[in-house]
Amino acid sequence: MSTTRAERTAKTAGRRIHRPRVITGTVLRTGGASVRLQGRAVAVTAALLTALVAVMLVSLTTGDYELSVTEVVRALAGRDTGGADFIVNTLRLPRLLTALAVGAALAVSGALLTSLTGNALGSPDIIGFTNGSAVGALVVIILMHGSMTQIATGALIGGLATAAAVHLLMLGRGLHGFRLIVTGIGVSALLLAVNSYLITRATFQEALEAQAWLIGSLSNRGWIHANAILLACAVLLPPAFLLSRRLSMVEMGDLTATALGVNVTRTRATLLVISVALAAFATAVTGPIWFIALAAPQLARRLTRTAGPALLPAALLGALLLAVSDLAAQRLFAPALLPVGTATGTIGGLYLIWLLITESRKSRA
Question: How many whole angstroms separate alpha carbon 41 and alpha carbon 307?
Fold first, then answer.
């Protein structure tokens, strides 16, 4: 039996209505501040913390030279001046902390950008911010032979310039929609060509080093790298967490957020800069690490089932994913030195295929 035009209109309108989500949980109030705690989100966060501690212990105790938990604790406390101290504090701990901080930075960057764009594919990897940061870093590495601080600055400038370019190309259309993803993919491809050109202008040794850096690796990462990304996270993550409530309101729509007292333009601009900066500093330290920024925020939302961006679970999950990927690259393929970017790229590629299929089915529904 055929449906009438009124019935078809009603069905179409029903698809467009965003029914309000019922948010449950416990509200904790301290002074003028209040925090809503959801049981599932708290449980997921606790589970992620437990898994993170377990991975940290495995990373610090296993390898070519195995250590006991007691030896690791003594080395961390500074009560061991022998081989265990060198292995833990010089070789393993800086690499582990770099992995945790980079994973958290990329995950929060992806969570912010995904929320701002309203698209599951709106991550720094897809839109081109990561490749923009890589261009800035490669310019400093190949042409200027700069220090770690200069490389980080170059990566930040490259990422912000890419964000500005994408914004100009989308001027008048906003940050939402499939058009942004297509524009970002085009910008990313262009920047990838620039990276290749920069490598052709380098000496043979510089080209080898740059190509190894472009794959994304945690090998030979010392305290200078760990301190750089930890400092960036210490500066950038707190404001991101503080603005997460406003971000949840922005997700409801500009008119609703404005009615609730949120300065939408300022909030978007601030969070966009934080997102780009986190991706840029992470890229400067390890090179491009693909798909952590894409997968971690989506997985965190699916696990917690929260209405908001779930920044803390996303950060923990990003740290866990990168630490596990690096651990697998070190232990499963030894003695071969497999860059962690290869592991995350393989897993992330499969996840991207699944995500594209899922989004395609949703668009046809």
Answer: 11
What residues contact 313, with CB distance under 8 A and at least 6 apart?
A: 41, 44, 45, 48, 300, 303, 304
Give the type of residue at 240.
Answer: A
pTM higher than 0.90, yes or no?
Answer: no
Which of 279, 236, 271 is closest to 125 using CA atoms? 279
What pairs with residue 37 in β-bridges?
26
Q: What confidence tens digit (pLDDT) does each residue in 282-316 have? A: 998 998 898 899 889 988 988 988 877 889 999 99
Most confidently modeled range among 21-35, 77-91, 183-197, 199-213? 183-197
Q: What distances in angstroms separate CA 284 from CA 15, 76, 106, one per listed residue?
A: 43, 27, 12
3-state secondary structure the chain: CCCCHHHHHHHHHHHHCCCCCCCCCEEEEECCEEEEECHHHHHHHHHHHHHHHHHHHHHHHCCCCCCCHHHHHHHHCCCCCCHHHHHHHHHHHHHHHHHHHHHHHHHHHHHHHHHHHCCCCCCHHHHCHHHHHHHHHHHHHHHHCCCHHHHHHHHHHHHHHHHHHHHHHCCCCCCCCHHHHHHHHHHHHHHHHHHHHHHHCCCHHHHHHHHHHHHCCCCCCCHHHHHHHHHHHHHHHHHHHHCHHHHHHHHCCHHHHHHCCCCHHHHHHHHHHHHHHHHHHHHHHHCCCCCHHHHHHHHHHHHHCCCCCCHHHHHHHHHHHHHHHHHHHHHCCCCCCCCHHHHHHHHHHHHHHHHHHHHHHHHHC
